[in-house]
Each structure stands twice: as C-alpha cells, then as structure tokens.
C-alpha cells in the first residue's frame, strides 16, 4: 500500500440537482482518494471517477490496481471544506472516508466536525464499523440537523464468496452490529444493497436474509440496485469473477449483451426486493429529510420527493422513457422553486401551477390533489 499526502485545490462536489429517490444528496466531499477496501465490483474505479489518472501521475502505472493500492490523503480536507461549504445553501452532504487510513489521520472525523459547526446534514455510505468510535459527533449531527448511515452490504454471509469480492472490507457481521449501535442511538441507518451480483447474490434466500437482518438490526430501509458493467470496471471485475467461477463469465456476457434480457432481469430483481421489504415491514427507499430546509420550501421539497420516488420506481421497473422524464423535470422545478407552491395554488389555482417551468397538466393535477389532501 502506498500513501501520498497532498494539498487538494478543491474538495466540495456540487450536483445541479439532488440525487432524488436515492440518497437525496446535493453535495459530496472525500478526505481520501482511492479506497483500501478494493471491492472488486466498485464502480469508482471507472475512468470517469478515478482520481488516479496515469496522464497526470505516471507512477500509478506500477500498481496492478491503483485505486486500492495508492491512497491519496488530502491534508487540507477540513479547512477547505469549511471554506467551500460556509456560503452554500444548507443541503445534504455525502461523506465517506472510514477506511484504514482514517485510523491515523482522522480527516473524515474532521470533516464531520465542519458539517456539525456549519449545521449541514450528512449522509454516510460506509463499510467500516470504525465510524462508531466517532459516535459523539454522529449523535450531535443527528440532533442538530440530520444524519443517515447507509451500510454497503451485498450479502449477509461472511463466507469465501463474500471474500472473493470484498477481500479487504470489514466483515458483514461487524457492519450489521454497527448498524444496530446506530439504531440504539436513534440514528437513521439502513442497507445500501448494491450491487446485487447476478448468479451469486441474486437468489431469494440472500435477498431475504439481507433484508431481514437489516430489520433485525434496527435498519430502516434497504436500497437496492443491480451491477453496472462497463469499461475498466468490467475488465477488473471479470478478473475476480474468473478466479471465483470462470463459468460465470459466459453467463454475465449473455445477460449484459442482451438489453432486453438485462431489463427484465433488473425488474425481477427489484420486485423480489420489494416483496421481502414488504414482508419484513421495512422501507425500500430512503425518505427525503426535510426539516433542515426553510419552512416555506418544505412542501415543495415534499412533493418533489414523491415525484423523484416515482422516477426511481419507473427506472427500476423498466418503464422509463417519457413518463420518467416528466416526473424528473417536475421534481427539479419544484426543488428550484423559491415560492411556496401552496401559495401559488391558493392565489392562481391550477393555472398558476402550470406556469411553473416543467409542470404540465398531469403534474399540476397531481400537485393539486396533494395540496388539497393535505388541507383536509
Ligand atoms: S468500500 Fe466502497 S468505495 Fe471502497 S472499494 Fe468498496 S465499494 Fe468502493
């Protein structure tokens, strides 16, 4: 393992829109680049995200897997986060960093301290129970604004199969234990069940076990997604797959080369997750946190939440297309709207709603129904 300490020029990533229906984050920031856990399916290796570009840092060429063998440490992470976050509108920020290097540097903790000071709500997506040692700060963020910890879990079993795909990550049992500790401290947590590996972890038994275990450990949701395969990530993942069971390569090829088969498979997988979430009485999505938004905008954000969740369900049920885009555009418009949508409706009726950019007749009617139901 090679570590490099450096000063980064910027740290805060800002999305144009929140990732509605998923984690609800607007911002993200990371104290380290690369990840020592080196999960074989990790899409952060992709050229699009991978910070280790050989064109800028030729030394990365000497590593077999630069993403997990060469970790860069941003020594100015917290100072920069403070500077870049302080004048931003309050919204959810995605932070992760509890990998082994955090034991020594504690930069993830320092970034959380900045979020606490500036009163920013936080979503953490983690694999390591190490974050429990920072329970003091986690509790404070939760009390002051909002904290949600999504545990990255693809199986409930700590067996050889799991180790073939997550060789250096902490045991799943430790993640579930940490989830339980968060729940005991009244902090929202759940399982980020991604990616569900085809022909390995997509059986009903694994799906139900993960969901049941999440429920038993006080988790409030299970958020699922399948495996995406492209470019360098695919090449890397196939090496691990070949080592695990070479006969699966042909099965993966057949599945991923046939768009229709993949679409139908994805729908079946999601339906299975929905079935067991219902059986074990646990949410299949993360409810949007609203309390940290200005009061007059909360109703806009709430209706946007309904539309964003519709987008996600349409995507996962293979019914995307025009309908998905109509919901997405309506959600974006409501999120960007600076006036209270109820005031618009009260003063101008449904015509007023239709004057909002991105809101057509059907969306305006749905907003009207929601507003009227809320007033009854
Ligand atoms: S822990 Fe997360 S970021 Fe790290 S390698 Fe695994 S999936 Fe990627």
Automatic annotation (TrEMBL):
Domain (Crossover junction endonuclease MUS81-like HHH) ranges: 300-375
Domain of life: Bacteria
A GO term, aspect molecular function: iron-sulfur cluster binding
Pfam families linked: HHH_8 (PF14716)
Keywords: Iron, Iron-sulfur, Metal-binding
Entry's transmembrane regions: none
SUPFAM superfamilies assigned to the protein according to its UniProt record, in alphabetical order: DNA polymerase beta, N-terminal domain-like
Protein name: Crossover junction endonuclease MUS81-like HHH domain-containing protein
Biological source species: Candidatus Desantisbacteria bacterium CG1_02_38_46
Source taxonomy: Bacteria, Candidatus Desantisiibacteriota
